[in-house]
Amino acid sequence: MDRFFTLKRLGLSMVRNAVEGDYADGTGTKVETTALTVPAGNFKWQMPISQFAIDLNSNLQQNPGY
């Protein structure tokens, strides 16, 4: 988790090996490529806000892209 925050703080892209785990691309199968990159400005650097939290506070807006 520390690496995530360091990459985000420094504005660096996240590169990870895509063949190390299942569901690497979200489909439930292993990905054919060797690495996945999430650019520093990509919306995936922010987690989605849960629907439960949005239901509790109508002032909250979902993070863009989710």
From TrEMBL:
Gene Ontology cellular-component terms listed: cell outer membrane
InterPro entries: TPR-like_helical_dom_sf
Entry superkingdom: Bacteria
Gene3D superfamilies hit by this protein: 1.25.40.390
Protein name: SusD family protein
